[in-house]
Amino acid sequence: MSSLLCRMAAEMAKVDIEQLEPLPVDRDGGKLRSEEDQPDSDRNPGCCERFHHFVSRWMLPEDLRETYLERANCCPPPIFIILISIGELAVFTYYAVWKPQKQWVTLEQGIWQSPLTYKPDHRKEAWRFISYMFVHAGVQHIVGNLVMQLLLGIPLELVHKGFEVGMVYLSGVLAGSLASSIFDPLSALVGASGGVYALLGGYFMNAVVNFREMIPLLGVFRILAIVIIVATDFGFAFYRRFIAHEQGLQVSFVAHFGGIVAGMTVGYVFFSAYNMKLLKDPRFWLCIVGYIAFVLFAVLFNIFLSPAP
Fold first, then answer.
1. Catalytic annotation, pick one of 52, 141, 160, 256
2. Average of pLDDT values for 187-216?
3. Contact indicator for 206, 185 with CB cutoff of 8 Å
4. Superfamily of domain 77-305
5. What is the DSSP letter of 278?
6. Which of 131, 177, 187, 193 is labelled catalytic?
């Protein structure tokens, strides 16, 4: 046995360690791919892979696409935006079908009596500042919001995941109701426009900031599309509020402004800081402190200064 060990030691001494092949692990300890494991560049990508390539080109500057594609997958799916959309559709269906209505193209009494609707004389019920997003005034209202938030929210959530998209969406909803309570204090509020406009605002700032790193024609198209959508929706809201003189409780349009400002601040930080540690980004703290200051001012205004009953 001793002679066998001596011969093995002698053989090992003759080996030049520097000439050996490296261990099949990377810096993180993960197994390196062998040549057989490398993806075939000639193969046709699957549907999911093609979709992620499209999302990366649409949502991210060129220097971040490779990082995204390395970890891109559909697990978890964009669960936040899907659940929110299902909840809004379920509440609309409830008031359109199970609650007595003269017609359901434009809902009337059902939504104004809902415990979810924001009403200035019920603002002490604090949940209404958030829950109003589930109630919509008619088919056109809910279809427009659902289409926009699904078109924007699903790609955003695939890149930034549910927590960040949820934070931006809900910050827009809250900012919309608080802004309405300050600048249009006698009007009611329904619909998820605050959250949708927060997604639009964050996406718009992302497109502007990363414009030089994106495909120029694609960047121009994205910015123009957002401007056209926002201008059209604001124009319709102004017409309905000040020109059409609809009967009954007036619906505020100020939530659009609150939502888009929230998106251009909070949403800008979350959606432009892909793959970065937000807590080390001074823009994050500037936007968060500014948003908290606005919320505190709005709360004090509603307690002490609001002209609403």
1. 256
2. 84
3. no
4. Rhomboid-like (1.20.1540.10)
5. G
6. 193
